[in-house]
Amino acid sequence: MSPRKNRRAVSGKPPQGSGGGSGGGGWAQRTEDGPDGEWIVRSIAGAASTKAYRCPGCDQEIPPGVPHVVAWPADERGGADDRRHWHRPCWQARARRAPRVQRSRNAPRY
C-alpha cells in the first residue's frame, strides 16, 4: 500500500486573501458594505480559534474552538486595536440591533 499524499496539487494561483495581511495564513477575507460603513471581514474556523474573545453584538464570550468572524473598518489600516471578533449571527444582525445603553439601576428610561 502506498503512503497517503496530503498535499494539494499546485495550481499556479496564490490562495485568496494571502497578500498583505498581518499574521501569515491564507485566510479568505471579503469587504462588506453596511449601514455602518465598509468593513473587511475575515471568517475564522473553529480549529483556528485559540483564544477567548468578547462579541460586541451580544456582549457574550466567544470561547476557543468556536467559528466566528473578525471585522475591522475598511478605511483604516486594520490594526489589532480596530479588529472585533463577532459571532456570525451577531455580525449579520448588527443593522437590526439598537446600541446598548449602559444605565445605572435607578436611572430613568426615556
Can you describe what's shown?
This protein is mainly beta and 110 residues long. It has a domain at 29-95. The protein has one helix and six strands. The protein has one helix at residues 88-92, and strands at 29-34, 37-44, 53-54, 61-62, 68-73, 84-86. It has a four-stranded antiparallel beta sheet with strand order 1-2-5-6. Strand 3 (53-54) and strand 4 form a beta hairpin. It starts with 28 loop residues before the first strand and ends in an 18-residue tail after the last helix.
Question: Major sheet, described briefly?
Answer: 4 strands, antiparallel
Amount of helix: under 10%
What's the rounded overall pLDDT mean? Answer: 77
Shape: elongated
Sheet with the most strands: spatial strand order: 1-2-5-6
State the distance separating the first and last CA atoms.
74 Å
- Strand coverage percent: 15-25%
Give the number of DSSP strands.
Answer: 6
Low-confidence stretches: 13-24
Element order: H for helix, E for strand: EEEEEEH
Structural class based on helices, strands and sheet pairing: mainly beta
Q: Total helix count?
A: 1
The gyration radius over C-alpha positions equals 18 Å
Q: Can you give keywords for this protein?
A:
four-stranded antiparallel sheet; mainly beta; elongated; ATP/GTP-binding protein; single chain; 6 strands; 110 residues; two-stranded antiparallel sheet
